[in-house]
Q: What sequence folds into this?
């Protein structure tokens, strides 16, 4: 019987924001023949460096990074595009005899890699604006209740306060894709199952210590010029609160300050709260995916 060739090894380092993934990945790269593949939905945008904790020019010179600075902030970037780009980057790294190390915290992208993804219609900005207006008037839990009536299976997977996922689900229903499960089956892109995945996850042992690290990191970002970075994005004249790039945690809150809708202190507090909530969602996903123990 012919021996089936071994699948190439691909490394993945996951964890919540602020857990030290990037620093650990750089230390690994100093000792091993790896190249880093960013799994971050905000680092794909040019000009968004400070608020995304993007690797510095020196770090990128020391270790080759992939899937950074792929798009202008005005552009959208889907999980399907990420899946294709990641597979191409992995193939390129392997072809040169190196080992890919995927590192980041965008769990939707990791889900696409590990489980596949449906290639769904792109964002409809007018429809999203209408849903946002309804949410202001009715609240996201009310829209979640509407989702539960129209697609119970999707609603069961989405928290009533998860505005982004509720909005996307209702948007897709309005665009006529049917239920989300039906859309998945009709237009799925396969998982990257032709690799031998070696997965490691960072789980902070002390939640309070993680929260303090997130607070310290935000203060460091502000000291480095995070507000000026957002102002430069606004000055382009082509971006607003509905732009996919400026919906990223931290950018959305500082945008409100730059547009005069909030104080700097208020925007900072909201950004820190949103970052902590992001870390919580990331840990929840890792546990639900069986990559971290419950509890």
A:
């Amino acid at each position: 019987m012919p021996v089936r060739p071994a699948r190439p090894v691909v490394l993945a380092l996951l964890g919540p924001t602020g857990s030290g993934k990037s620093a650990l990945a750089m230390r690994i790269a100093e000792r091993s023949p790896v190249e880093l593949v960013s799994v971050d939905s905000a680092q794909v945008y040019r000009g968004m460096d400070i608020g995304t904790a993007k690797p510095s020019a020196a770090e990128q010179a020391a270790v080759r990074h992939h899937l950074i600075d792929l798009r202008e902030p005005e552009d959208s970037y889907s999980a399907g595009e990420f899946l294709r780009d990641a597979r191409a980057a992995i193939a390129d790294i392997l072809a040169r005899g190196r080992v890919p190390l995927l590192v980041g915290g965008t769990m939707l992208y990791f889900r696409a890699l590990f489980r596949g993804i449906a290639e769904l219609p792109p964002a409809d900005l007018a429809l999203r604006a209408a849903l946002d207006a309804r949410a202001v008037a009715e609240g996201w839990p009310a829209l979640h209740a509407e989702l539960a009536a129209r697609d119970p299976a999707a609603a069961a997977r989405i928290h009533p306060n998860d505005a982004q996922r509720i909005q996307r689900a209702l948007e897709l229903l309005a665009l006529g894709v049917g239920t989300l499960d039906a859309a998945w089956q009709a237009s799925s892109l396969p998982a990257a199952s032709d690799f031998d995945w070696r997965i490691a996850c960072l789980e902070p042992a002390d939640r309070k210590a993680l929260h303090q690290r997130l607070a310290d990191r935000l203060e460091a970002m502000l000291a480095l010029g995070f507000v000026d970075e957002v102002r430069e994005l606004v000055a382009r004249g082509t971006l607003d609160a509905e732009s996919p790039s400026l919906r990223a945690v931290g950018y959305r809150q500082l945008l409100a300050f730059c547009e005069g809708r909030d104080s700097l202190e208020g925007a900072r507090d909201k950004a820190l709260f949103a970052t902590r909530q992001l870390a919580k969602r990331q840990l929840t996903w890792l546990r639900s995916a069986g990559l971290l123990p419950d509890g």
